[in-house]
Amino acid sequence: MYRTYAFAAVCSVCMIITLISDAEAGCEDIGRCCSGKSTGCKYSYGSSGRHGRVCYCDEYCQKSGDCCSDYESYCLSRAQDCVMTYWSHWSHCTARCGLGMTERRREVHIPPSGGGKECGKRRQTKACRHNNDRCRNKEIAQILPSYHNRKRNVRDKYERPSVLKKVKKDSYCVHYRISSIAWYCRYASPYHVLKIGSLVCAECHDTAMDREGHCAGSYTAVRSRWRSLVGRPCHGTWESEGEKEENCRCGENPGKDFIFV
Question: Most confidently modeled of 109-113, 187-191, 195-199?
Answer without folding.
Answer: 195-199
